[in-house]
Amino acid sequence: MHNTKKEKISSVKGMNDILPPASAGWEWLEAKVRDLMARYAYRNIRTPIVENTALFVRGLGEVTDIVEKEMYSFEDRLNGELLTLRPESTAGVVRAVTEHSLLYDGGKRLYYMGPMFRHERPQRGRYRQFHQIGAEALGFPGAEVDAELILLANALWKELGLENIRLELNTLGQPAERKAHRAALIQYFEQHLESLDDDAKRRLHSNPLRILDSKNPAMQGLIEGAPRLRDYLDAESLAHFELVTAILDANGVAWQFNARLVRGLDYYNRTVFEFVTDDLGSQGTICGGGRYDYLIEEIGGKPAPAVGWAMGVERVFELLNLKSQAFPMPAPDAYAVLPDAHLIPAATVVLEALRRAGVQVQMHTPGSASDGMGSMKSQLRRADASGARHAIIFGADEFARGACVIKSLRDGTGAQSEQPLADAGIWAVSLILSATS
């Protein structure tokens, strides 16, 4: 028989596995987020990873970097539909809210967690499959909801113990105000064409506001002298922004006004914001968002206001790692030691009773059929290495008496007690209590 070794298949570049024990940190973070979202009355929404390409072209803007360069788009071989792996979740949330008429009885506060996909050059804190946690408040026009979402994100940093994060704010006004500002920008930059780089020239007539966000050092002086959007805002837009900042000030949340903050997506209006750190170098934005009052209508729904933010999970972990954040490692409450393989069927009945009672039990299992169950000593070593607080020993003599032995592994005493198998549901309580003490 010809046996050729098959080539090993590896993960796609920029798409990473999250393995134990690192996955314990993700579970820890997700639990913190769920608890905090509940305190602010935000409810979980889960949307498909694959959406119609038109959703993002129409929702994000045809000339945004994401749509032009970064989306994973393909044609469905069965029906010819143009589909895209979601590069962000706001558009999908808005599509779901519109499709299912969730705003028929009033506004909704929603949050999500999950993977996104962009074809970028993988680097620190930036991957082709990356993860976001986001919060969206739909159907609420007031500035107090903009502020609420910012307070929510700020509270998350405190929950996670993260510091050195600054809040940058801007207001983009309304479409008519931006239109007047846009015309002024085009006129200004047309007078300085020789100073624009290729990217700025390409965006000059399609999306001149994005030129203000350029990181090209050679253009910074020119950008500083550009017309300011704030000078084109009416009293209502200014009052909206002033209420946002008044709420932040009242809650002691420091912020900086950044007139060049425009975000990378076309759907924003009025308040935009970013939480930024200098600890991650060029990838310093860990959370960003703003108001998008026209996106719901843009994708075919009834006009409704909305505001939200998204947080980069990998970047948050970069910060947590910098502060050497320790994550609680999961360990079973008990480890089942089975010196006699013949007792396994009956022992599993007891283990299932314990699990139904809420005890986390790991059963000893040999590495291969040829290993046998292993000696009592080797199994107890495995029990200790598992992190369990107790070993449940199913010895043949005790089993014959309808009992098992509970051995303490963590209090330094190694104390043992015999417990009746029939009362597993009763002594399960003591195992749970000792594991949480």
TrEMBL record:
One of its GO terms (cellular component) is cytoplasm. InterPro entries: aa-tRNA-synth_II (IPR006195), aa-tRNA-synth_II/BPL/LPL (IPR045864), Anticodon-bd_dom_sf (IPR036621), His-tRNA-ligase (IPR015807), HisRS-like_core (IPR041715), HisRS/HisZ (IPR004516). It is found in: Cytoplasm. L-histidine binds at residues 88-90, 118, 132, 136, 263, 267-268. It is an enzyme of class 6 (ligase). CDD domains: HisRS-like_core. Residues 29-339 form the Aminoacyl-transfer RNA synthetases class-II family profile domain. It catalyses: tRNA(His) + L-histidine + ATP = L-histidyl-tRNA(His) + AMP + diphosphate + H(+). The keyword Acetylation does not apply. Pfam families: tRNA-synt_His. GO terms for molecular function: ATP binding; histidine-tRNA ligase activity. Its EC number is 6.1.1.21. GO terms for biological process: histidyl-tRNA aminoacylation. Keywords: Aminoacyl-tRNA synthetase, ATP-binding, Cytoplasm, Ligase, Nucleotide-binding, Protein biosynthesis. Belongs to the class-II aminoacyl-tRNA synthetase family. Homodimer. This is Histidine--tRNA ligase. It comes from Simplicispira suum. The gene is hisS.
